[in-house]
Amino acid sequence: MKNRKIPLNVKLIIIMFIVTCLTMFIKYLVDAGVEATTIPVVQEIEQYAPVNDNTINLEEIIEQNRNKLSEIIETEEMDLEYITKYENNPELPKGLIQVKQEGRNGIQQAIIKKTYENGTLISEEQIGSKVTKSSVDKIVEVGTANYKSNYKVKVGDTLYVTSSSLILRREPSIDSENVAMLNKNDSAKLLAISGEWYRIVHNNEVGWVNSNCMTYINPNEEYHEEDGGTDQKSKATLLSKLSFSMKLNTPSGLSLEQFKKIFDNEEKDTRGVFKDNAQYFYYIEKQYNINGVFVAAVGIHESAWASSKISINKNNLFGYGAYDSSPYSSAYNFANYSESIDLLARVFVKYYLNPAGTKIYEGEVASGKYYNGPTLQGVNTRYATDKNWANSVYKWMEYLYNRL
């Protein structure tokens, strides 16, 4: 078969067709935005092009990112601490403490703001709360008779219930099984003593009770006792124990009269708040194993000798409950100063001064949530952002001890 040549005019038609197709294809690409997509690429290159030839400073970048802070809002179930009400009883020996009604903590859902620096928790603040179970007030009677008693309860004594009701438990723990219920003025024989717990027998039922709810004084008989003298320690003995690193989960050892003395005729106490409430710093020592002078010094420091607005209007010597965002409106309002003194003592013992699991007052165990040692510096770590807080409080402790 012979090759046939394509006529020239046909070649021209084919070339023109190809050119037309290419032209239409290019127009299609332009209309489809291909040209537009090339512009940002150029702009992006220009945007990130180095301004000069300087080397990137890695140390500067690291320093800029070194102290990154972040905040997280969390909800946490917490104890709602009960309030202690004090009542004077002129028929009881001076300074004697007995529980008329046991306190019960409630439950609250607390809203906590936690601040982290480079992943490490540096502070947390409660910014709100919702009560899910109400607390029950503790009622304490304190003796105001003109005589004292130095009698020490011993195994074999007959004791009497002072609270309106009292649970007899299988073991010395508030979580232990209930054995029986005792009523006010019921009598029982003391079998053993373990911390703040008494093992007793009542109507052939044996178990453990809170020692603060029992007394050796027979309510059916008149009780009179001559002044038992004094067991107070000398000023030199008490001062010998004073130091910046002293353990605050141990009572100071001051007597009731000595607590009153350190606030008597104190010019700085212009409103007489500390003088009128001196006895409560003694009572918290007896109940919660805490240094009452330390608690007093904190109150002086935080309230400027009860002259702060929160102290005056809310009977709150410690600014307890105040949030940084709204300190006055969020601070707790107490009926009287004794309530704030008692509550702060328990907060220190439960959260700051004892490691988690330590047996503390009334059968409770320490949370230890903010524990960093039972000293001023240990408390300062989580209680106050002011790094000089411990030194300021210790200054007032020294001042009070030297007034003995």
3D architecture notes:
The chain has 404 residues and is an alpha+beta fold. The chain has 3 domains: 8-49; 69-215, Resuscitation-promoting factor rpfb (Resuscitation-promoting factor rpfb fold); 235-401, Orthogonal Bundle (Lysozyme). The chain has 13 helices and 13 strands. The chain has helices spanning 8-31, 34-47, 58-64, 235-240, 256-263, 273-276, 278-288, 292-303, 309-314, 327-330, 337-352, 376-383, 389-401, and strands at 69-80, 84-89, 97-101, 106-117, 120-133, 138-143, 158-161, 165-169, 178-183, 187-194, 197-202, 205-210, 214-215. A 5-stranded antiparallel sheet has the order 12-11-10-7-13, with no helix packed on it. The protein has a 3-stranded antiparallel sheet with strand order 1-4-5, with no helix packed on it. Strands 2-6-3 form a 3-stranded mixed sheet, covered by helices on one side. α7 crosses α8 (292-303) and α12 crosses α13. The N and C termini lie far apart (135 Å). Residues 34-51 have low confidence and may be disordered.
> Helical amount among residues, as a percent range?
25-40%
- Whole-number total of structural domains: 3
Which residue ranges are poorly predicted, with pLDDT under 50 across at least 5 consecutive positions? 34-51
Q: What's the helix-strand series?
A: HHHEEEEEEEEEEEEEHHHHHHHHHH
Distance between the termini: 135 Å
Structural class: alpha+beta
Mean pLDDT over the full residue set = 85
Strand order in space, largest sheet: 12-11-10-7-13
Major sheet characteristics: 5 strands, antiparallel
Q: DSSP strand (E) fraction?
A: 15-25%
Q: Report Rg.
A: 37 Å
* Tally of DSSP β-strands: 13
* CATH class group of the largest domain: Mainly Alpha
CATH topology (level 3) name of the largest domain: Lysozyme
Number of helices: 13
Shape: elongated
